[in-house]
Design goal:
The protein has about 475 residues and is an alpha+beta fold. It is built from 16 helices and 22 strands. The chain folds into three domains: about 180 residues, FAD/NAD(P)-binding domain; about 110 residues, protoporphyrinogen ix oxidase, domain 3 (Orthogonal Bundle), CATH 1.10.3110; about 110 residues, Polyamine Oxidase, Chain A, domain 2 (Alpha-Beta Complex), CATH 3.90.660.20.
Length: about 475
């Protein structure tokens, strides 16, 4: 692009979904406000996307990270509308809708009407083999339990997932039903996971209705129609050609009026007169560039390292956010080599089962075009916060572990048609108790630094819509501040 000395220069650090969304929204705002803005996005890898990408090979369509997004948070759907990608979105396959939980080595369907933590139908809960008769009775007693109060000695506004579920539904419901379902989203230790930071609606349901069972049944009666935002797609949506569709389109739009520098690693952000000097490494060379403003979208500890000298207080706060690592073995198998019918979207595994995998997504059951005819694509997850030691194994050892588990649990035999191990190191921020208070400290401290913004999954949500929302809010704040300076 042609640079103008009067243009506002903004650096976006990180080319994942957050960085791309932030850069694109900055362009939208600049056009709307008729501001002359030069946006440069720095990505340390050879391509954009971070943990999100798609491999298309020999009839396989393999998402390397997230393979779908939730629609009841509007940011992702709205971005797709602005990008003209609505016709590329697809919904999940109704035929296989549902999930399985492992019980004593056998996959068992999640009871109909059970929504992550709360049962809305009585008969399926009475029939499920996932819980003992006592476990079912203890869950049912939730309907009669009082709200928590100050007299209980509990934090007025937060609680760990384990403490909350045990208090409301009992220990068996936690270990056999709720822990594996939540682990499939957050890969976290339930004893540490902050409910207010991750699933606040359940705390609110207790506050407003006393009983979660009572609340969910009331909500079912009131909402006969789906939420308008996601009604067309159901609760989850994906792209026909994989998640790379969104990444590629965003990168093209950002590059059309801005600049994306691949294989450029930002190593230092230093405060300078009316802006910041960025130290950038590329192809063995180091350079310093000046910008009027900087938007950091890297993982929180990385952002902390970049700001270690400029803002040591903020740096220290950012480094307090812990992360977990996972590995995903993507494999394609002939259906004739799998004994289990795979009649669901996937399987989650309680830590009580003492297995070496914690989830298996049946990718080609969820969405079409993910595997050739007569084959199925599996995405098997290893590690997370509960079993980090497993990731110390080599790729070959992890593949052997996964194949052994798939054979034992699903009856998978023979060599896979295709197999690839994907490691996502330090990819999932852990929202431990106190997370929201820490984020508020981070936000207050960052607000004192003019022309600096933070965005990403480390702060107020880990999903794709959360990242997009975080990016757009940061872009809004930055442009408002820069416009006020002019």
């Amino acid at each position: 692009m042609n640079q103008s000395s009067s243009a506002i220069r903004i650096a976006v650090v990180g080319g994942g979904i957050t960085g791309l969304s932030a850069a694109f929204h900055l362009q939208e705002l600049a056009q709307e406000k008729k501001q002359s803005v030069e946006i440069t996005l720095f990505e340390s890898q050879a391509e954009a996307g971070g943990w999100i990408g798609t491999i298309n090979q020999d009839g396989y369509r393999i998402d390397t990270g997230a393979d779908m997004f939730i629609t009841n948070k509007p940011a992702a759907i709205e971005l797709c509308q602005r990008l003209g990608l609505e016709d590329q979105l697809i919904s999940t396959n109704q035929q296989y809708r549902g999930a399985l939980i492992l019980k004593d080595g056998t996959p068992v369907p999640v009871p109909l009407g059970f929504e992550l933590m709360t049962p809305s139908r009585i008969l399926p809960m009475l029939k499920t083999p996932l819980l003992s008769p006592f476990g079912k009775l203890r869950m049912g007693l939730e309907y009669f339990l009082p709200r928590r109060s100050a007299e209980t000695g509990l934090d007025e506004d937060d609680e760990s997932l384990a403490q909350f579920v045990t208090r409301r539904f009992g220990r068996e419901a936690l270990t056999r039903l709720i822990q594996p379902l939540v682990a499939g989203i957050y890969t976290s230790d339930p004893e540490k996971l902050s409910l207010r930071a991750t699933l606040p609606r359940f705390l609110d349901m207790e506050r407003d209705h006393r009983s979660l069972i009572k609340a969910i049944r009331k909500q079912k009666k009131q909402s006969k129609s789906a939420d308008a935002t996601g009604a067309r797609y159901g609760l989850f949506a994906a792209f026909k050609e994989g998640m790379q569709t969104l990444i590629r389109t965003l990168a093209e739009r950002v590059s059309s009026t801005g600049t994306i520098l691949y294989d450029h690693r930002v190593t230092h952000v230093a405060a300078a007169d009316s802006g910041y000097d960025l130290t950038i490494e590329s192809a063995g060379e180091t350079q310093i560039q000046h910008f009027d403003a900087v938007l950091l979208t890297t993982a929180a500890p990385q952002a902390g390292n970049l700001l270690a000298e400029t803002a040591p207080g903020l740096s220290g706060l950012l480094k307090q956010i812990e992360y977990a690592s996972t590995a995903i073995q993507v494999s394609v198998h002939r259906l004739e080599n799998i004994q289990h019918p795979l009649n669901a979207f996937g399987l989650v595994i309680p830590s009580a089962e003492q297995r070496k995998i914690f989830a298996v997504a049946f990718a080609s059951r969820k969405f079409p075009g993910r595997a050739p005819e007569g084959c199925v694509q599996l995405r098997t997850f290893v590690g997370g916060a509960m079993q980090p030691e497993l990731l110390e194994h080599s790729d070959e050892e992890l593949n052997t572990i996964v194949n052994r588990e798939l054979a034992d649990i699903l009856g998978v035999s023979g060599e896979p048609v295709y197999s690839k191990l994907l490691r996502h190191n330090q990819s999932m921020p852990q929202y431990h108790l106190g997370h929201l208070q820490l984020v508020e400290q981070i936000e207050q401290t960052a607000a004192s630094l003019p022309g600096l913004e933070l965005a990403g999954n480390a702060y107020r949500g880990v999903g794709i819509p959360d990242c997009i929302h975080s990016a757009e809010q940061a872009a809004d704040r930055l442009m408002a501040e820069l416009t006020a300076r002019v």
